[in-house]
Amino acid sequence: MARATVRRRVVRLRDGAQGVRPDALAAEEPLEIRVGGEPLTVTMRTPGHDFDLVAGFLVGEGMVTGAEQLPALRYCAGTDAEGANTYNVVDATVRGGSTALSAHRNLLMTSACGLCGRDTVDAVRTHSRWSVAEDGLTVDQELLYALPDRLRAAQRTFESTGGLHAAGLFDARGELLCVREDVGRHNAVDKVVGWALREGRLPLTGHLLLVSGRASFELTQKAALAGVPLLAAVSAPSSLAVELAEELGLTLVGFLRGRSANVYARADRISSAGSA
Q1: Which of 22, 122, 181, 266 is deepest in the core (most CB within 10 A)?
Q2: 66-70: long-range contacts, CB 8 A cutoff, minimum separation 24
Q3: Which sequence positions are flagged as catalytic?
Q4: What is the DSSP string of 146-205?
């Protein structure tokens, strides 16, 4: 199997001196996603939890909403120059799902960004099975402030490489249920959502999703399609992310650092959010 980290020798510069030392790097490799044997897309990702990644990607595409619609996931032959399986091709069997949203997605995605844009806003409304606007979740400010440290403590690969994004799924009490890391922020979210799908937990009513970077339109879309009522990020949201959160009734929190945060949509879910 491919590894999440690779070792390389580097020249270390420090205080005018040079030295050679080993360094751990976050691995980045392509993953081809197939549905029923037909190529769908290729994404650059950190190897590990690939089945979760594919399952979450299909949820984000509106193709599946329950584990029963995804009866099988398997690695296909993808070989290197020596003929060894690279484990970089996954084929999914989808039953009873929809391919309408994914029809235009047969493309190469980088690890930096998936597909973002206004043209998919209506598609999210059409294909989202659950209404996050009706979710009765409420969160105390103190609990919210504690989440970044809990997520960081669970980032095992980040500690050795410093080069990965993370996504963490929490319940209403602040318990960390699942954490996934990847060079791509959207991949990390897909891995969390895919885990939830395969565990039969969708929709994620009453849950919180925390991401270690910024909150893009696509991450907001993925949260809504999984039924998550609150998305928090340690960095900034984009304007489209805020617009989509407002339209869908999803609570969007940005700049969650230390004991401060900005709530861009549905602040009523945060207790005493307007008193500071």
Answers
A1: 181
A2: 66/197, 66/200, 66/202, 67/197, 67/198, 67/199, 67/200, 67/202, 68/95, 68/96, 69/94, 69/95, 69/96, 69/97, 70/94, 70/95, 70/97, 70/197, 70/198
A3: 113
A4: HHHHHHHHT-HHHHHHS--EEEEEE-TT--EEEEEEESSHHHHHHHHHHHHHHTT--S-T
Residue 43's SS3 state is strand
pLDDT given for residue 106 in this prediction: 46
d(CA 215, CA 188): 13
pLDDT in tens, 79-136: 776 767 789 999 999 998 655 444 444 444 544 555 444 455 666 555 678 999 999 9
Backbone angles phi, psi at 149, to 5 degrees: -65, -40
CA distance 81 to 90: 19
Q: What is the pTM of this model?
A: 0.87
